[in-house]
Write a structure and sequence with these properties.
Order of helices and strands of chain B: EEEEEEEEEEE
Shape of chain B: globular
Number of strands of chain A: 12
Helix content of chain B: under 10%
Structural class of chain B: mainly beta
Radius of gyration of chain B: 13 Å
Strand content of chain B: over 45%
Distance between the termini of chain A: 40 Å
Mean pLDDT of chain A: 92
Low-confidence stretches of chain B: none
Largest sheet of chain A: 6 strands, mixed
Largest sheet of chain B: 7 strands, mixed
Shape of chain A: globular
Oligomer: heterodimer
């Protein structure tokens, strides 16, 4: 099955700072890659996805590029807001288990 | 409608009780999932249903019993749980049921279960 390594949190930033959350994975083949976000007390929401090498997923100012050579899918945002405070999960699709494998999650805290 | 609806939102049950969690989606998805999430941890896969048949059981104890009555509904029957089973239980669905996991999964808000 897949494995995912995600940077440890919490990540604490000031509003308008630049955000990078690193994600690398091991997988059989070339899975689709996803970032999910979980706000306090809620379920998971899809943030963005990429389905093949060099694809860039983007949503709400967040971006991530599918890097086949480095098996990475790092999440970036140019200017974070307090409302971005949440836990972010990197998740490659697992073609063996037919389900997502989640990274450990990175908690982001944005201070005003 | 891209919603997965889970009921109840909160559940407190004793160790001798029997209860059920319910999940519903009307997106025409043919794959449905149960995940368990402990505090400050990622979701862990429990069960996968594909075309209403159980395709994956991640070695879950038999006190958790899934059921998929039709393509829109997924239940999780609970019996004789332990306090360590307290967690957020998440249901999800996806279009892809062919084993390639290339499409996104949509998650419900979860049921927060406390076993006393």
């Amino acid at each position: 099955g897949n494995s995912v390594t995600q940077m440890e949190g919490p990540v604490t930033l000031s509003e308008e700072a630049f955000l990078t959350i690193n994600c690398t994975y091991t997988a059989t083949g070339y899975p689709s890659l996803f970032w999910y976000v979980q706000y306090p007390g809620e379920g998971l929401q899809l943030l963005l996805k990429a389905t093949k090498a060099d694809d860039k997923g983007s949503n709400k100012g967040f971006e991530a590029t599918y890097r086949k050579e480095t098996t990475s899918f790092h999440l970036e945002k140019g200017s974070v807001q307090v409302s971005d405070s949440a836990v972010y999960f990197c998740a490659p699709g697992d073609t063996g288990r037919r389900a997502l494998t989640f990274g450990s999650g990175t908690r982001l805290q944005v201070q005003p | 409608d891209t919603e997965v609806t889970q009921t109840p939102k909160h559940l407190v049950m004793g160790m001798t009780n029997k209860k059920s969690l319910k999940c519903e989606q009307h997106m025409g998805h043919r794959a449905m999932y149960w995940y368990k999430q402990k505090a400050k941890k990622p979701p862990e896969l429990m069960f996968v249903y594909s075309y209403e048949k159980l395709s994956i059981n991640e070695s879950v104890p038999s006190r958790f019993s899934p059921e998929c009555p039709n393509s829109s509904l997924l239940n999780l029957h609970l019996h004789a749980l332990q306090p360590e089973d307290s967690a957020l239980y998440l249901c999800a669905s996806s279009q892809e049921a062919g084993g390639r996991a290339r499409t996104e999964a949509f998650f419900g808000q979860g049921t927060r279960l406390t076993v006393v």
